[in-house]
Amino acid sequence: MPKFARLLAATVCCLIAALTAQAQYPAKPIRLIVPFAPGGPSDLLGRLVGQKLSEAWGQQVLIDNRTGANGIVGVDLAAKSAPDGYTLVMGTNGTHGINAALFPKLPYNTVSDFAPIARFGVAPYVLVAHPSLPVHSAKELIQLAKARPGDIACGYGGSPTQLSIELFKSMAHVDLLPVPYKGNAPAVTAVLSGQVSLVFGGIAQSASHIKAGKLRAIGVTSMRRSPALPQVATINESGLPGFEVATWYGMLAPGATPRAVVERLNAEVVRILQSPEVRDRLLGQAFEVPADTPDQFAAIIKTELARWAKVVKATGARGG
Fold first, then answer.
1. C-alpha triplet 255, 311, 254: angle, nearest 5°
2. Sign of CA dihedral 268, 269, 271, 276
């Protein structure tokens, strides 16, 4: 057989094998890397959707928590995994938006090394204060911060909340004192105990404390009021027009994963998210539930990268 014919035959065989593998996907358990500790939103959402994928496909989705360096450790592991659809990763606007600005020498390319699949949920924050802080709105907070520059401590537990503080400072022209914690839950606890005065907290985690009077809500970070806290004004309407921050959580694959596998995952994830059981559960936890295509998700990541690069450049924020 001529050399060209042998090469053509080998190419055709490889193509058939690849198409067969994609048609049978998934044929074995899937590993879903969560680059944060168990119990956080990425972990809980990953386990929820992973369980539903396991039920639908008859293949187990194994959660692999790989923590460290603002999610960089787990994300890097995913970027360097085989692009066959059997290793996936949970990403956020922190791992796939903010980190690239805070850490210029990432060991992977945030865009080319990943194939976005779908976002699971979008969640704004609520800026909450210890009741001893004499403010009730963003306007009052700005006035107090200008009178006490660098004196009001604001806890944070990751790059999204760190950059939320920096964005607030930049837009309001005030100087708050950022204080890091090992996660946003400890940062909220620090406000409850009076160690710091403010935190951008998760709505679902903060709502009970607000209703009990243990925390005072200053404003939610979305442009519209949250159905979970309808009585709380947005920061945009209560003193800082244009302020908007939300964290998203989604699933990505290594960059060279076959498009057919990505689209199959997207279709199944969107079906799961739109099921009444899952949708109602997420809405009850103050998540908005998107239904992105892979291309829409990819465009969102590029927008996030550009947005937070501007914030980091304007504020001089640094990763830690």
1. 10
2. positive
Could you tell me the CA-to-CA distances from 44 to 38, 160, 194, 249, 265 in Å, in that order? 8, 18, 28, 10, 19
Burial tier of 95 (Cβ tally within 10 Å: 0-12, 13-18, 19+): buried
Q: What are phi and psi of 128, to 5 degrees?
A: -120, 150
Q: Give the C-alpha separation, 33 to 52, whole Å.
A: 16
Of 194, 181, 124, nearest in space to 152 by CA: 194
Q: Taking Cα atoms as reference points, which of 156, 204, 205 lies closest to residue 177? A: 156
Q: Cα-flanking dihedrals φ and ψ of residue 31, to 5°?
A: -100, 125
Q: Summarize pLDDT for 263-287 with one digit per residue, the tens.
A: 999 999 999 999 999 999 999 888 9
252, containing H or E segment: strand 246-254
Interacting residues of 317 by C-beta distance below 8 A, sequence separation 6+: 101, 102, 162, 163, 166, 311
Name the CATH code of domain 23-123+248-315 (choices 1.10.8.80, 3.40.718.10, 3.40.190.150, 3.30.465.10).
3.40.190.150
Digit-coded pLDDT (tens) for 167-208: 999 999 999 999 998 778 889 999 999 999 999 998 988 999
Q: Which residues pair with 260 in a beta bridge?
A: none
Q: Which amino acid is at 313?
A: K
* Nearest-angstrom CA–CA distance, 242 and 102: 23
pTM: 0.82
The string of pLDDT tens digits covering residues 155-174 is: 998 788 999 999 999 999 99
